[in-house]
Amino acid sequence: MWVPVAVKNRVIGSVGVAHVERDYFTAHHADLALTVANQAAITLVNAELYEHAQALAALQERQRLAQNLHDAVNQSLFSAGLIAEVLPRLWDRDQDEARKSLDDLRRLTRAAQAEMRALLAELRPSAITDTDLGDLLHLLGNALSGRINIPVAVTVEKEVILPAEVQVAFYRVCQEALNNIAKHAKASRVDIDLKHEGTTTEMRIRDDGRGFDSEQKFSSGHYGLSMMRERAEAAGALLSVTSQPGHGTELTIRWAKTLSEEAL
After folding, report:
1. In terms of CB atoms within 10 Å, which of 42, 47, 148, 221 comes out highest?
2. What span, in angstroms and rounded, lies between the C-alpha atoms of 263 and 90?
3. How many helices (H) and strands (E) does the chain have?
4. What is the pLDDT confidence band of residue 189, given thresholds at 50, 70 and 90?
């Protein structure tokens, strides 16, 4: 007895069943075999969809890294190249101004180095989870400081050990928040504070930029904020954003260890 394995009226295989007796199979057997064939078809389709989803996720990650290279590293190196090109003539004309340009050149190259270290860390799957979270936050802060030339103060009270998915969520939320600050806030200072008290770990990111109506942004489904909140909730953390136009922004992500996690 043979029954088809079909997907959307397209036969992709078949299921064969044999028995030593002639004319053994009944319509009931055929129905059972067809049920097995349909389940096999569903399994094959799910496997194909999963493979496509993995390929899409890999493509999106490559596009994100390429965008970061373009937005941050390429911009810093381009600006550094321009300064290096005019520096000899500027030095002959005005050495004080040339020294300021040297400081800018040093800042831009350090920013590019910090951005590259962050991007190289992301290319290794275990880098974000194996590296101390405080070190990662310092890396992101240095990259932002060099990119937009404002002070970024990173305060870490002590080393924090978090589950892998929670650490990734904290890192990604900080990364996205700093990207938003660079693009929209027009801030003159940023503070990143990471602290751990009892079973709770909390990270606060504050800037003194132009701010926004946080309730309106969240209610309108603003992509960046919504993505950060979904990422935090997926890791069992809570994300809150407080902001007002003209009064800066404060973002907080908080995660508490549960009793079951403490037992483990």
Report:
1. 148
2. 65
3. 9, 7
4. very high
Strand partners, 174: none
How confident is the model over 118-169, as pLDDT tens digits?
A: 777 666 667 888 889 999 999 899 888 888 889 999 999 888 889 999 999 9
Cα separation, 56 vs 60, in Å, equals 6
Distances (CA, A) of 18 to 6, 15, 23, 165: 20, 10, 10, 49
Per-residue pLDDT of 29-42, as tens digits, reads: 888 988 988 888 88
Q: Look over the chain and give the mean of its residue pLDDT values, rounded to a whole number.
A: 84
| Domain range summary for the chain, segments of one domain joined by + | 132-264
Give the distance, in angstroms, between the CA of residue 245 and the centroid of all CA atoms in the same chain. 27
Tokens of 201: 């770990």
Is the dihedral angle over the CA atoms 239, 228, 166, 115 positive or is it negative?
A: negative
Contact assessment for residue 255 and residue 235, using Cβ atoms and an 8 Å cutoff: yes
Q: CA-CA distance, 248 to 217, in Å (whole number)?
A: 14
Tokens 């300064």 sit on residue: 83
Instruction: Say whether 144 sits in a helix, a strand or coil.
Output: helix
Domain boundaries 132-264, corresponding CATH code: 3.30.565.10
Residue 252 scores a pLDDT above 60: yes
**101 token code pair:** 């340009």
